[in-house]
Write a structure and sequence with these properties.
- This protein has 245 residues and is of the alpha/beta class.
- Helix content is 36%, strand content 28%.
- It has a 6-stranded mixed beta sheet, sandwiched between helices. Strands 2-1-4 form a 3-stranded antiparallel beta sheet.
- Strand 6, helix 6 and strand 7 (202-206) form a beta-alpha-beta unit.
- The longest helix has 16 residues, at 183-198.
- The chain is globular, with a radius of gyration of 20 Å.
């Protein structure tokens, strides 16, 4: 089976300022006085290694702050790891990592369809061809000319999901977005995901819903406090994750 994602000893360090600098003036004064701002290192990921086969559906599980979303951002190319590497062999990847990422909240839903499509690398011609399909799936036709700043989080999720899944990417990365919106729309999202997986799309999912994980995923990667705890069957992973202690 072809490996479409290979994470090899991935570590990610963030520098957290431990000394507050309130203004550019304060920073310049410190530099003139040869003082430096001190930083605390925070390792969001420590030596994480796993692989995902082409067409496989894989969940990243763990408590809030464990490093799951950081891992997704590295796989999506948004972040570069401090150590290690991630090899992604798919030619197209659609990240649904943060609600409204890539949206300009001052623009209308209609304008954001074309803006978000361009960010994802889609041509204007393709966006015009898919425009009605996007609106119909999102069920936002009555609000499409309203600025996105007036949308609810559920409406933003509808529009973002509709754009990202209008074509079948080789890899779809989903972070908690399925938890937003009413049950009917969640069911539509699950159905579209199932159709995409049946046609060969690889899915990476972060979710705190065991039901969603079991429904969508075959495999799970458990990250606990930045460290890898388990890679394997999704049922076994959830049992270990839920076990006290």
């Amino acid at each position: 089976m072809q490996k479409i994602i290979v994470a090899d000893n991935v570590s990610m360090c963030f520098n957290l300022a431990s000394e507050r600098v309130d203004s550019l003036k304060d920073l310049l004064i410190k530099k003139i006085k040869f003082q430096s701002c001190s930083f605390d290192e925070f390792w969001a990921l420590n030596n994480i290694s796993f692989s995902v086969d082409k067409g496989e559906s894989c969940a990243l599980i763990g408590a809030n702050g464990s490093g799951k979303s950081t891992m997704l951002k590295i796989i999506s190319g948004i972040l570069t790891p401090t150590k290690g590497s991630v090899e992604v062999n798919g030619s197209s990847i659609a990240p649904l990592i943060e609600l409204g990422a890539g949206f300009d909240y001052e623009l209308t839903g209609r304008e954001n369809i074309f803006l978000n499509g361009a960010i994802l690398g889609y041509s204007k011609k393709l966006m015009l061809e898919k425009y009605d399909e996007i609106i119909d799936f999102s069920e936002l036709r009555d609000f499409i000319d309203v600025p996105v700043k007036n949308y609810s989080s559920g409406m933003i999720a509808r529009l973002g999901f509709s754009i990202a899944t209008m074509v079948k990417p080789e890899i779809l990365v989903v972070d908690e977005i399925l938890a937003v919106g009413d049950q009917a729309f969640q069911d539509k999202c699950h159905k579209r995901l199932e159709d995409m997986m049946n046609s060969g799309t690889t899915v990476l999912l972060v979710s705190h819903s065991a039901a969603d994980i079991k429904r969508i995923c075959q495999k799970a990667v458990w990250i606990d406090k930045s460290n890898l705890r388990f890679v394997g069957n999704v049922d076994e992973a959830l049992q270990l994750y839920d076990k006290p202690g």
